[in-house]
Structure formats: C-alpha cells, structure tokens
Amino acid sequence: MFTGVKVFSATKAKEREELGGNVSRWIKSNPDLQIVDREVRQSSDNEFHCFSLILFYKKRESS
Questions:
Q1: pLDDT for residue 46
Q2: What is the DSSP letter of 57?
Q3: Residue 63: is its pLDDT beyond 80?
Q4: What mean pLDDT comes out for the span 48-55?
Q5: Residues 6+ apart with CB under 8 A from 51
Q6: DSSP readout, 18-42?
Q7: Model-level pTM?
C-alpha cells in the first residue's frame, strides 16, 4: 500500500542526464518516506523522447 506518488520526468537530453541525481536528492531529502514500488515509462513522438520515473511511497513506521 502507498500513500503518495512522486513523478520525475525528462524530455530533453540534458534533463535525462540529470534525472538520476534529482531522484537521489529527493530520496535523501525525504528520509521519513519509504519507496514501496516504482514504474518506468517512456513515450516518444517524432521529435521528443520522454522518460518518466514514478515512485510510490508511504511514511516510514517508527521503530
């Protein structure tokens, strides 16, 4: 079960190169969240290729 969704997407080559770092920074800045699932999507048209990473998360339980 998840309580939130975070979507990262990139269309331009430079954005795609930076996507991994952006995801890592977001995960590090939200230590109270636990990633429970993820999906990767790609779509294209004649000019652009869009890459999306979708993270499903929930609040970490205190131990």
A1: 82
A2: E
A3: no
A4: 92
A5: 9, 10, 11, 16, 19, 40, 41, 42
A6: HHHHHHHHHHHT-TTEEEEEEEEEE
A7: 0.86
The per-residue pLDDT for 45 is 84
| Nearest Cα to Cα of residue 42 among 58, 25, 19, 26 | 19
- The region, left, alpha or beta by phi > 0 then psi within -120 to 50, assigned to residue 8 is beta
**Angstrom distances, CA of residue 27 to CA of 7, 12, 46:** 12, 22, 33
Tokens of 32: 């109270």
State CA 42 to chain mean position distance.
13
Rounded Cα distance between 46 and 26, Å, is 31
